[in-house]
Amino acid sequence: MLIPLLASWVLAQSASPEVPKLALPTAQQVAWADAEVGMFVHFAPNTWQDAEYDQLSTPLEAIDPKALDTNQWVRVAQSMGAGYIVFVAKHVGGFCWWQTETTEYSVKNTPWRGGKGDLMRELAESCRKANMKLGVYLSPADTKHGIEVGGRAETPEKQKEYEQLFRRQLVELLSNYGSMFEVWFDGSLVFDVGDILAQHAPDAVVFQGPQASIRWVGNEDGVAPYPAWNSVKFGARPWGVYTAEDGTPDGDRWLPNECDARIRNTWFWNTRNAPTLKSVEQLMDMYERSVGHGAVLLLNHTPDPTGAIPEADVLRAAEFGAEIRRRYGTSIADIAGPGRKLQLGPSAPRTIDCVITMEDIAQGERVRSYSIEGLTSEGWKELARGTAIGHKKIDRFAPVEVAQVRVLVHEAAAEPIFRRIALHDTRRK
């Protein structure tokens, strides 16, 4: 069964024979693209083990994150300009951070909050107060129950038993904590949960699985290849395992890319990874090659065993957000509108080193090739050239003084519709 989010994939229809059929996003996919940056949060018993995967070796009585404050997590997300948070409510090990009825391997058997704690509830409340969108990661794999990637069990009997458990966990997460912006099924799903998603998370985008409406970019480096086309051809491979490599401008389904990445070199905190905290320049390179390639960046943070995000990471997130705003928060000039040739300029010649272009993706990804030219003292000069634009393309080049800039669309599937064209000088303080 396919939920309405997937079944409602639509093809643009026009009375004009010149307009081909184009893959179109749903309203949820457009809203998700507009978020541009999200924050991932990985926190599990392996945080206490200096490990990336839960070895099932930590006594539950040792899990008592006394400094945990989900308001801090949300402030960190806000400081770096994130539009949403995806919380790993259950990682591969199987430990559950909410008051589940499905397993004893959960927060209810820890001393945290006297065994009454519900981290999912606390985070949902912090997000609600801050108007921050919330997403949830529920791992199909589950070491505690002997389940492999995708939710695959060893025997048909165990498969049926686990599918029932997983479905109960998903219902708990999607029905008790408010609306969800994104649902993550890491490694995809070998069984169907479309009925649950349709009933309890109709407005969420779904990462991987049979109901996927966004896709994994194909790496964990926080970058998308270029071009990173938003559409794919249905049937090219099993739905839910497409990556950026499967993108095509001639696709019939809208399936945009999410670029997950780590602010340190591991997904989970450990005692050795503090020196691996990425610099602002490294994070900006990620941003410009993910968001700047039309994708969404999902940047991970790693609370330590106290439950707090380390102070160095808090500071770096704020510096990252500040640098995005410094470079791209205020334009020198901008315009919007339809057309294959749009021209704009400052009131007097100015030095620029970047042009941002954005299509109105609600009308489809139409541009197939374009160039950007600047009017210099020596005449028109090409500044950049590309193929895909999609939600956002950031083109940077050597600083040049221009009186005017024009964007020329050389090939397009239909009349280009620009949501925004903006000139920037990223050197400005």
Descriptive account of the structure:
Helix 3 crosses helix 4, helix 3 packs parallel to helix 8 and helix 7 crosses helix 8. The chain contains 8 helices and 20 strands. A hairpin with a 2-residue loop joins strand 16 and strand 17. The chain is globular. The protein has 429 residues and is an alpha/beta fold. The longest helix has 20 residues. It has 2 domains: 325 residues, Glycosidases (TIM Barrel, Alpha-Beta Barrel), CATH 3.20.20; 92 residues, Galactose-binding domain-like (Jelly Rolls).
What would you say about this model in short?
With 429 residues, the chain is an alpha/beta fold.
Oligomer: single chain
Task: Please state the overall shape, judged from the principal axes of the Cα atoms.
Answer: globular
State the CATH architecture of the largest domain.
Alpha-Beta Barrel
Total number of beta strands: 20
Structural class of the secondary structure composition? alpha/beta
| The CATH fourth-level homologous superfamily of the largest domain | Glycosidases
Distance between the termini: 53 Å
- Summed over residues and divided by their number, the pLDDT gives a mean of 95
Indicate the low-confidence ranges by residue numbers.
1-17
Instruction: Give the SSE order as H and E letters.
Output: HEEHEHEHEHEHEEEEEHEHEEEEEEEE
Helix content: 10-25%
Q: Please compute the radius of gyration using only Cα atoms.
A: 23 Å
Q: According to CATH, what is the class of the largest domain?
A: Alpha Beta
The percentage of residues in β strands lies in 25-35%
Biggest sheet strand order reads 7-6-5-4-3-12-11-8
Question: Biggest sheet, in brief?
Answer: 8 strands, parallel
In the CATH scheme, what's the topology name of the largest domain?
A: TIM Barrel
Please give the domain count: 2
Q: Helix tally?
A: 8
